[in-house]
């Protein structure tokens, strides 16, 4: 069991909550902004359209994050879960966009979200495909897949002309050392806010040495209202199929992320919880599409923040959602955060993502040691690392293979699930339905609790 400073339903003091929420925002903002910028760059969209996509992504991610944490009726997992635009949809989005433009991307995202909405009602059955061995593999693969991202950040950003510059590596190392020191020796809020404090110190140092470019801040609008359906929508059948396939893969990845989140927050991840969480992913993606944003999904990197700081309060992350909405309404806020050098993010990110990997390794250590489980772990991790380390491996296969197996997380999860089903002596979660039924009988209706808490 993790030693949490704040449990899921705890409410830290207001100022503390603001600081901790900002910490989650800093961890997620780069990923949220990256997807619309990549899509815009490949499609060669005008600068104003890219800015509109970014603002819509921030706004949509913020609203769905708030709902995921607080819950609205049957929608929302009610755990500290940050939502954001996902790279799982980038391949399909670019393919659709090259032929049908942004309207095609948004229309196919809206239509494809039905796959996730319908799939959410089958999560108790899907949950049974993720016994402890499979879950341990997926959590480990999430950590292994994210660490190269942190390394690219620490080196200055993938594709940057100064990639690997000693200055970048030195900044990342300093931030990493500061975060480690604050977590290990800090007390209370100092330890809990180690990531944001470490990044703030690193950022201040970069500003002092003239390493921060404020051009984007000077060019950004102070305020921008969202425009519903500003790009319009089209619904090409081929694009809907491609996007639906991406949603199916995302269900697998999201399930794994929720499993990691359950481990980090000491929460039994039952089928009912998964249903609410995946339903929010689907409904949230539909909402984001209407607002002009690419589809959203659960962010794995913020699970690392929880593991590192011990802050599992869903109310903290709900405030992160509010901050993301403000960043969408006030583009200058997002522009200011984007000025944080990649190397500063890398120092903190390496620590966050390594914590997810450490959680996966701990889970693997608790797996029963036998030949069958050893095969599942070895083969699934090997296949996941193969496509993560050598994505060109799938280049000459039909596009559908790249959609399904393009992510190391989805590849590792699919291989682990299939091997667990096929090898003799299948491991199952036989008691899951009974646990769900008992929990429903024992727990008061959640929306009522939420209303009472909000009224208080």
Automatic annotation (TrEMBL):
It is a multi-pass membrane protein. It comes from the Bacteria. InterPro entries: NCS2, UacT-like, Xan_ur_permease. PROSITE patterns: XANTH_URACIL_PERMASE. The keyword S-adenosyl-L-methionine does not apply. Signal peptide: none annotated. Pfam families: Xan_ur_permease. Residues 432-456 are annotated as: Disordered. GO terms for cellular component: plasma membrane. Coiled coil: none annotated. The chain crosses the membrane at residues 21-43, 49-67, 79-98, 104-122, 134-155, 167-185, 192-212, 232-252, 273-296, 316-337, 344-365, 400-423. Keywords: Cell membrane, Membrane, Transmembrane, Transmembrane helix, Transport. It is found in: Cell membrane. One of its GO terms (molecular function) is xanthine transmembrane transporter activity. PANTHER family: PURINE PERMEASE C1399.01C-RELATED. Belongs to the nucleobase:cation symporter-2 (NCS2) (TC 2.A.40) family. This is Purine permease. It comes from Pseudoduganella dura.
């Amino acid at each position: 069991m993790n030693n949490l400073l704040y449990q899921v339903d705890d409410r830290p003091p207001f100022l503390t909550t603001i600081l901790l929420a900002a910490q989650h925002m800093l961890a997620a903002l780069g990923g949220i902004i990256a997807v619309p910028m990549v899509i815009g760059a490949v499609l060669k969209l005008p600068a104003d359209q890219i800015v509109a996509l970014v603002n819509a992504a921030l706004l949509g991610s913020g609203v769905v994050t708030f709902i995921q944490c607080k819950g609205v009726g049957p929608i929302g997992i009610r755990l500290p879960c940050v939502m954001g635009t996902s790279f799982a949809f980038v391949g399909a989005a670019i393919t659709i966009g090259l032929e049908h433009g942004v309207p095609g991307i948004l229309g196919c995202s809206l239509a494809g979200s039905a796959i996730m909405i319908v799939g959410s009602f089958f999560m108790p059955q899907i949950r049974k495909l993720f016994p402890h061995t499979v879950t341990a593999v997926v959590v480990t693969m999430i950590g292994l897949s994210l660490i190269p991202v942190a390394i690219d950040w620490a080196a200055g950003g993938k594709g940057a002309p100064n990639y690997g510059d000693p200055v970048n590596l030195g900044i990342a190392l300093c931030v990493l050392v500061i975060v480690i020191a604050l977590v290990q020796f800090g007390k209370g809020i100092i330890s809990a806010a180690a990531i944001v404090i470490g990044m703030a110190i690193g950022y201040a140092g970069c500003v002092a040495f003239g390493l921060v470019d404020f051009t984007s801040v000077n060019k950004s609008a102070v305020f921008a209202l969202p425009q519903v359906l500003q790009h319009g929508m089209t619904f090409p059948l081929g694009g809907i199929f491609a996007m639906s396939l991406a949603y199916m893969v995302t269900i697998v990845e999201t399930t794994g992320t929720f499993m990691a989140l359950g481990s980090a927050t000491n929460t039994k991840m039952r089928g009912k919880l998964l249903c609410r969480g995946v339903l929010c992913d689907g409904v949230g993606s539909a909402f984001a599409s209407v607002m002009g944003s690419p589809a959203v999904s659960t962010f794995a990197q913020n699970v690392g923040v929880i593991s590192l700081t011990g802050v599992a309060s869903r109310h903290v992350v709900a405030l992160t959602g509010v901050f993301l909405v403000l960043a969408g309404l006030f583009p200058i806020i997002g522009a200011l955060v984007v000025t944080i050098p990649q190397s500063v993010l890398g120092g903190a990110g390496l620590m966050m993502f390594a914590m997810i990997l450490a959680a996966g390794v701990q889970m693997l250590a608790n797996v029963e040691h036998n030949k069958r489980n050893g095969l599942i772990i070895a083969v699934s991790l090997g296949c996941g690392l193969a496509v993560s380390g050598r994505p060109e491996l799938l280049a000459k296969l039909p596009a559908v293979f790249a959609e399904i197996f393009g992510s190391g997380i989805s590849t590792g999860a699919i291989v682990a699930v299939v091997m667990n089903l096929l090898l003799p002596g299948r491991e199952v979660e036989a008691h899951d339905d009974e646990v769900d039924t008992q929990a429903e009988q024992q727990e008061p209706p959640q929306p009522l609790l939420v209303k009472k808490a909000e009224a208080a």
